[in-house]
Amino acid sequence: MMMSFISLLLAVSFSESDGMEVGRAPAQFPAMFVLGDSLVDNGNNNGLSSLAKSNYLPYGIDFPGGPTGRFSNGNTIVDFLGDLLGLPLLPAFTATFTGERDVRSGVNYASAAAGILDESGLNLGDRFSLSQQVQNLGSTLNQLRNQMDEVELKQYLRKSLVVMNIGSNDYINNYLKPSFYSSSSTYNPEDYADLLIMNYAGQIMALYRLGLRKFLLAGIGPLGCIPNQLATGLAPPGKCVSAVNDMVRIFNKRLKSLVDQLNANHTDAGAIFVYGNTYGAFNDILGSPATYGFSATDRGCCGIGRNRGQITCLPFSIPCSNRDEYIFWDAYHPTQAFNEIIAQEAYSGSQSACYPINVKQMAQV
């Protein structure tokens, strides 16, 4: 009886290797591959020489097992999305070097401070830029070739989901740091967005040439509303920094147009490119926070200074206790309560949240 009870407890427990929950529904995609920045990083920066790390408390205070390198108090958007899709928690790419971690359900390549441009985030130290993440995915395919034949691998890749969540650092750790980067004096916001989209499209096509066909491309959220930007004092009380949000909207408009272009140009069976309207979902929550259970919208749960966003969450800081009522965990990143809402929108939201179809529908294509 005692052994049966213990077995039952283990069957419903959470673990990093087995996923958010054991006993989930059958997977809707054979695998999910994640590329991006700190919004979806799950530990790839832990071993790097970088200021962009979160493998310490209070990060992970609500995550089973504690800090992992996720930039939140708990689960990220892709953790929740993977669970909705019936997939386990993905290993960080840096945890797959030894071959001991199973990569057949996918891998997370995201790296804090990474941008579309190779130089973005350099001010924070080492990181895996988007181009490097694409190369890293290619090395995972070499592992998979040892586990399945070419015909099986081709079908596996065609049916797998690619999630790309990147671009924020090309603004907050590039364009908006004129003391470190010359981009804002070289390009106006429109030309800079064009530069980003051109480089982004090149990396998407590199993944397409590897055999991947299903892409969820997340837009950038309203960066002018994050505590780090509010702490600059450039916004009127109760408002966001409109100049920053205007720049982000230009990028998002071009990203959505890129999705239309990619879908028009790649009509082979199973190919689908989807735009995730993170900006719109964020704005909906900011416009009616109480509806979603939030009471704190303009400050981090963990941080120092104005809006708790001038200095981000330091080791062993004391965070707020009512974390589920906060949109922002630290100066830059949302709480897991917010992440769960965004993941649900991506999975089953309307066309205004996920265009032209949502992730649940992508699985049927």
From TrEMBL:
Localization in the cell: Secreted
Highest rank taxon of the organism: Eukaryota
SUPFAM superfamilies: SGNH hydrolase
Main location: secreted
Entry-linked CDD domains: SGNH_plant_lipase_like
Signal recorded as keyword: yes
Record key words, sorted: Hydrolase, Lipid degradation, Lipid metabolism, Secreted, Signal
Signal peptide (UniProt feature, chain positions): 1-19
Pfam families, sorted: Lipase_GDSL
One GO CC term, this protein: extracellular region
Biological processes annotated in GO: lipid catabolic process
InterPro entries in the cross-refs: GDSL, GDSL_esterase/lipase, SGNH_hydro_sf, SGNH_plant_lipase-like
Gene Ontology terms, MF aspect: hydrolase activity, acting on ester bonds
PANTHER family, per database record: GDSL-LIKE LIPASE/ACYLHYDROLASE-RELATED, GDSL-LIKE LIPASE_ACYLHYDROLASE
Family: Belongs to the 'GDSL' lipolytic enzyme family.
Name the record gives this protein: GDSL esterase/lipase At5g08460
Record organism: Theobroma cacao (Cacao)
